[in-house]
Structure formats: structure tokens, C-alpha cells
């Protein structure tokens, strides 16, 4: 670390009060005292080109039954809360947008956005009944800004579904395989999501061990 942890601004809430959380052979991990986010210091993140080289090795087949079961932990509770013929966005869809296909098979209309594989910025200028980000937020370098943007895309009462594994405590984190992916730079806990819900005045549901739904305000 070239800068004291306390001088680092949290990438979620921008607070400047962070503390050491963990260190392994490759990286340091800080924790924000305000929102509880655990994050990798900016100087230790990969470049965009390095990230994409890793993503290009992923093989997530939209027709793979096991992958669909994995996604169903968010898909099922989202579908149960959506009206028929809802309009949604799969944010960070990757090269094989399985979740979008599942929603479309259920009768919903889904747009795609991914900075590497579906970089159509016009999809971020529309309004949606729901937005999903599955295994996305842990990769974001500016999660506070991106989550706020996704919430602004929702119609009143719209749903933002987020799927990411959650931090439990420092001891579990030290043995956690999830932190070992070099593209994972932000780690959320229940308290982090509670902070986000309060900040944006959303209703929050923990629908699985790795899935949450934020419901935007009804005006």
C-alpha cells in the first residue's frame, strides 16, 4: 500500500474512513467504516484489457441446465414479483446472456448492456420495470455511481435484482475463494445493502444467500 487505508475513498459511498480488512499474497482489502463495503485499492485493480482477457475465457452457455439453476436463485424471486410482459435490462450480460433468455422465455422483453460484449449505451437511456445485475457488482470500480444509475433507470416501483456473494466476517473472508478472482474488487455484506436501501429509499429483500432485490419508491 502506498497510501494509508484511512485516506482511501470508498468506491461505494465515497467516505474517507477505511480500515485494513485482509491481505493475501496478491492484494490488500480495505473496509469502509460507513457502508461496510470491502474493496481492493484502486492501484491494485486490473486494467480493462486484463479484465476482458479473463472474461473471454468464461464459458457460460445460455442453454446449460446447471448455469440456469444457478441464475434461478435471482430469476425465480424476480419473476414472482413481476407483472406479465414487463420490460427489463440485463446489465453486465456477458457474452452469453442466459438470464435475458430466461426472462424472455417467461414472456418479458429484455434489453442487454455490457461494456465489453453489448456496449449499446442507448439501453442506459430507457426506463424499465426491472434491471438485473448477476455476478456484476463485485467487478465494478465505481459501484456507488453504477448502482445509482441503475436505480434511475427504474420506473416507480421497479425492481433491481443483484446477485453477488456476500461478506460474512473477516475470518470467513480469509478463506473465501470468491476473493481470489482478480476481477473481483468489491465485496458486499448485508449491512452494505441495508446502507444502499436507506440511501436510495428502496425496499430491500434478501431473497437468497447471494441475491437481493431493491424495489424503487412508488411516487
UniProtKB/TrEMBL annotation:
<keyword id="KW-0489">Methyltransferase</keyword>
<dbReference type="GO" id="GO:0032259">
    <property type="term" value="P:methylation"/>
</dbReference>
<protein>
    <submittedName>
        <fullName>Class I SAM-dependent methyltransferase</fullName>
        <ecNumber>2.1.1.-</ecNumber>
    </submittedName>
</protein>
<dbReference type="InterPro" id="IPR029063">
    <property type="entry name" value="SAM-dependent_MTases_sf"/>
</dbReference>
<dbReference type="GO" id="GO:0008168">
    <property type="term" value="F:methyltransferase activity"/>
</dbReference>
<dbReference type="Pfam" id="PF13489">
    <property type="entry name" value="Methyltransf_23"/>
</dbReference>
<keyword id="KW-0808">Transferase</keyword>
